[in-house]
Amino acid sequence: DFQTMLRPLANTPQVIAGSHDPLLEWAVRESHCEFALLFDGSLDGLTRMAKRQARVCGLHVFSSEKQHYNIDLIEKTLSGLQVVAIEWAWRDQGLIVAAGNPLAIAGLEDLCNRQVRFIDRQQEAGSHLLLEHLLRQQNISLTDLNVPVPPARSETDVALAVLEAKVDVGLGIAAVARQFRLDFVSLHRERYDLVI
Question: Does position 1 have pLDDT exceeding 50, yes or no?
Answer without folding.
Answer: no
